[in-house]
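Two quick folds needed for the group meeting slides. Do the first one here.
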Amino acid sequence: MNTTTQFKIDGMTCASCVGRVENALLKVVGVTNATVNLATDTATVQGTASHSELITAVIEAGYQVPVKVKQFGIGKMSCSSCVKRVEQALLKVTGMVSASVNLATEQVQVRTLSFVTDEQLAQAVTQAGYLFIPLNNDSVIQKTNKHQPFYTKAWWPVLGAGLLTLPLVLPMFGMLFAQQWMLPPVWQWLLATPVQFYFGARFYRAGWGALKAGMGNMDLLVSIGTSAAFGLSLYLWWSFDSAHGMPHLYFESSSAVITLVLLGKYLEHKAKRRTTDALRALENLKPVEATVQRLGKWQKVAASSVQSGEKVKVIPGESVPVDGEVLQGQSHLDEALISGESIPLSKKEGDIVTGGSLNLDGILEIRATNVSTESTLSKIIELVEQAQGAKAPVQAIVDKVSSIFIPVVLLVALTTLLVTGLAFDDWTNGILNAVAVLVIACPCALGLATPAAIMTGTGTAARLGVLVKDAVALEQAKEINLVVFDKTGTLTQGKPVVNKMTVISGSEEAVLQLAYSLQINSEHPLGKAVVEKALTKGTQPIPVDEFQVVAGYGVKGNIADKLVLMGSSHWMQELGVKLPTDQIEILGASVSWLASQQQDQITLLGLFCFSDKLKSDTLQAVKLLQQQGIKVAMLTGDNQASATSVATELQLDDFKAEVLPADKAKYIMEYQAQGYQVAMVGDGINDAPALAQADLGMAMASGTDVAVSAASFTLMRSKPSLVPTALIIARMTYRKIQQNLFWAFIFNAVGIPLAAFGYLDPIIAGAAMAFSSLFVVSNALLLQRWTLKEK
């Protein structure tokens, strides 16, 4: 059916842009007419093409379409068929780009054009027979639940149905001891009826909603199956001659199945909540109040109202309400739940603090920098939510199976009934076998297999300091067989130290004293390294006159009536100094020459070589990767000698030296051309081209500098050991997905034939169905037990 759609386009500047966009839209299959208005930056398109196809065409033409991403909860879902139904209902909303429902979180993530409202989304969900739940009301819902009457609690249907079912199933155990505990038919009916139509009403409501939508779901199977058993019991009771004793009824089967399914759903819900433990822990870190200086005094305000630039006070025991810079005070902050760093970090004036971290022992006054949704914690939560709400590529196969699952099960159940009834003239057993087929064939396990594993895996990763952008990244990570590290700041501390000092003229003490005296006034990292070395030796500085920084070269100043210079090889060569590089061993990424000048004569006094120390866990990280069969390489702009030294110490499989940042992506392409699946690890900013080119980009973050947009994985601590940790978690998560899908298919592949041939009692079938869903969620939860073992 032809529809008319209007949407905004960003990036157009002139009439040629209009023509370009219109041509791109007209090429989309199904578009009959497309006009673009430059004044309003709006495109009007007629035809049958989907919104995602139109947006893709605009983007490929070099422009952007503003798209809103929203998440909200969905109530009353029971299985993977419900997932499909909700997605289809939402995709019918005009302006919808995509909809992805997560059965494990009972949430949906939608991408819409800007004009789509929450009311439209809620209407679509409600008409499909489900509940629309705004996520920002979760806390209100949870609080009000505490004061609701018991019969509205989640456990009440399980308890109520269980108490009524118990007298019905106890006679089955009595038979094992030759005891006749069977209740009279009227008592069986009185106990079974409320179970069937009060506690089991949810199955009828949801099943009827599915029928009206032309689809099937788990509720439909349960309602048909238990109704058949209940109806068969009524028929046998009505047609039985009381003179021949008591009829054999099946009220216990219908009631037990409903009770077991309710129990399974309750336990499944409890287990699913555990998969979001990491996300809830992060949400709980958000402080509610903040102490802010306003109108000259400290006052308590809502943390969400703090503005950037305001002064905030944090006392011991309070959480830091916003990202900021310490203006006054000193304390230790616990950032374990944010970065995974278990050791409290010392913070003093000038240091950066992250919102959500716990102040342990001192009073801090900070200046707010990033507040509300711009804070590091908010970005982390958003990233974790997106990762947990995303679908893995393998889920597409599951969705296809689920879409035909219910019709196939109904056909198998009908065939079982007809074959048993017509061929064997046993309609009673035919109905019971069909009921067992309907009850055991639950698509819940299939629907939960993938999202439960992804949620637990990404949650565990977040707890350990690894943020995963999406489920696709997890699947890519399991294929990685080469990890390429940037060197400075990634493998090394990013803080140079004096690696070697060579005296050319004079004594070692005199050379170090002159260098220290010059560099004590310098802010350059190499100068600070000289100062640190001098301090460890107890060297005293000499007064310096006319100190000057020579940009790009070094520093100089007058000491004891002599001009002393300290700087690069290039500077010395420009001054006409012949450097004895053939006689002196140069060991380090950077060097600085010390010289003195009297009149026109320049005399070399010494050479300082600098190196950047490896991080404490770098060697461990490389070994862990190589033990996993992954090769490790390094790209660095350092000289060949320095790179060779590091590569030898770490026993790297390959390295490239003197690499410009712009050329790193080229080397990644070369590795890929050799057949490697490459992960690039860098700082997420200077290494952006290489991170984008790699099969998997891993950004090494530091403090609040979280490069969430630069890579598929963000490492919250600047520790190389998080790289093997991230890859291990990715592989374990994908293994859990495979295990869950295998068992979900096995439950149905084995259970349905057994039920069809009469080898499964409906009660056993109901228990097996409930167990299958609980099993896949519990199997995924095993990921939470995995912890990083650091040496």
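Then this one, please, same format:
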Amino acid sequence: MNIENASAFSQAQSSRIGQRDGGMSAERVVLRLSGITKTFPGVVALNRVDFACRAGEVHALVGENGSGKSTLIKVAAGIVVPDSGTVQIGDMTLKIGDPRESRRCGLMTAYQDTSLIGSLTVAQNIEVSFHILGEPTPEDLRSVLARYKLPFGPGDTVSSLGPGGRQILEVVRAMLHSPKVLVLDEPTAALDMQTAAQIHDLIMLARDAGMAIIFVSHRLEEVRRLADRLTVIRDGVIQGTHTQMNWQVEEIVELMVGAPVGLEFPLRCSKTTVGTPLLDVRNIEGPGFGPVLITVHAGEIVGVAGAEGNGQRNLLRGIIGIDRKAGSVHLDGKVLAATPAAALQAGISFQSGDRAAESIFPAMSILDNSTLQLGRDAGPAWLALRRSLLPRYREAVARLGIVTASPYQPIGALSGGNQQKVVLSRPMLRAPKVLIVDEPCQGVDAKARLDIYGVLTNAAEAGVGVLLNSSDSSELAGLCDRVYVMADGVVIDELQGHFGEADIVQRFVSASTSWETSPNVSRTKTQSRRFAAALSSPQLPVLVLLLLLAVVSLYTTSQVPFFLTSSNVANMMVLGLPLICAALGQQFNLITGGIDISIGASMTIAVCVASFVLSDYIAGSIIQGLLLVSAVGVAVGFMNACLTLFLKVNAIVATVATTGILTGIAVLLRPLPAGSISPELATNTASGVGPVPFVFLGIVVIGLLLDLWLHLTRSGLSCRAVGLDAGSSQRIGIRTNRIKTMGYLAAALGAAVAGVFLSMQVGIGSNNVGLDLAIPTFTACFLGGATLNGGRGTFLGAMLGAIFLTVLRNATQFLGVPNAVSQLLYAGILLMAVAAYALANDGRRTARTRPKLPQNIQ
């Protein structure tokens, strides 16, 4: 279409749909974006965009995937910094690139992938959102949630909610702030009709309360019904704003695409189910589903429907062997092994509904993502040759209409719709026997949907059996020859012949309603959540460590009677001080989502520096020396923070490099053991009440106070939130880099203090004395409940872990255990600690899926 024709078409659409919005009364505008321009490498995402939203209206923002919608709302939310332009919320001009400032000015965003922390409770997620803004959390959250008719309570863990429950909570949490502007980014993208209707009610409630609502959605039918005004964006340029009239979906699509587009489902002949099925699923079971029996014939498109959370997704995964516990799957009459690799090799292509987490590799090129399942077709002798891959890739690009600048562009830079097309190019290039797709059109625009529908129907016409799950019942009705309806993890009905969207919805809504009245639901749900809460309790590692301490102590005492005498207990407490201090610092870092491999080298540097500055027992000299050692620790912490947070070096790589640097400096400071530490320091360190040194008591008090801060204060909650999910934390305005910097500082400072205590024990400067304590430090933290994923563990647990390792080391010496065996024992304890957490985590997942709750309960 040339420029003149495109202009004439746009003008014709403006007259049919509604006139371009003219002047706007300034007093009613609560959000104004002016002259927003944003470029990414090779792409102009936004080009001098002007956009405004009024109080008390639903203003829809529509456009194709990659048109600039997401970038524009992220600019408004302060997440993306524009190259030029201004953002005004109410009477305040936003400091560009600050989510906290945007929220304080009155703009709240509910994201499609949510900004909730899954491992925190509903109440904690709401609390941390208010804490960041310095606002009090609403009182009596239970009644507040009940007012919004939410089917979960404040104490429920967010990860235990279904996708629909999480999306509703995301919207409600934003509304609880009573914002001036509420931005809704694809709030119903993966929801069934019943849950989407609940979101629609919330939108109307917010509009009637006077909020300005920006509504981004690819479900154009709901845009047509809900929006008061509609702004179209294409290729980063606003194409016009239109007032509400009798919109038709086809006309909205024409505005988005810039040309007339047909929206009919592809025509095809309905297939019969006579004969041997291509895919025969026999009574398979797994978490959240089963037993299920379904079939798919060659050339047939079969759908799976149901209210969200009734086992549809788990069923599709179970067919390819993920978490399948019982039953069998037959392809062409042959039994398949219960592994995804075996399913792929046999001819089943599965594409997950969780595109970002399971379907794409964001840092890899589009070419590699598209062709990674080609196998032998990629080149001879399993080689991936470009001359073989590029023609296949270009074929997929042409057939699917993938918009990309280069085959070597990272797929993470593409829009959601183009990413989905790349994912679906894999089965197209491989030509499988069966294609299983979960949510094929989630988060893609109307034009991309047509391309994807074409892929599915062409595959069926070529004799491929297609099995798909979709939350869009109209999609299932338009594409499928048959539809299995699921409730409570089992198939309750099968639709075939002539059926429509209403028939599908009626089946699973009535099933959910009848199941909801079961008297066993509440009891099963409560038991499951109690079990999950017990496994995830931060006190569990503490209880286990106390039990282990008792066992080791009693056994050693039975063999060595003087093991628990006052003198030996005091000796173990003093010997344990370096490990306890190092573990406390490292635990802080692990909780905030960091990791510091250089902690052993940091202790060594502290010992070397101490041998220069702590040789004389003079008050002024001792104070200056301790301050200098602490300053060295702070400097190391800042260096690690700069490398990981600002230079974006991987934390393990960065701190390994720091280890090398510090080790080299230690060798320069003390090529040979030399210097001295004042013996009076060691003597005073051992003084105390009975067998308990004062210093030991003080450090224990510090650890307990840190635990109280971590679990009882809002700032402690923010630290845990950052460790659990830094991305979501940043979206709600938490200063993630500041908190992570505190973690690295705590780790290095803890190592410095540990080095001081260690120097008192060795009495001399040495360039390798602290290196052996690095692994025990991590072991102590993991025993205390910490994980590399962050957000978990307690300071009391880390201290007990360090004490347990100290007692164990002392016991093995008394019992005459060889050093090599002791090292193996320590390594075994570390592996057991990690394995125990993995089992507990698996138990939490099992507890969440065991009740098989439908969406309106989850």
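Slide caption for protein two: Residues 3-257 form a domain with the Rossmann fold fold (CATH 3.40.50.300).
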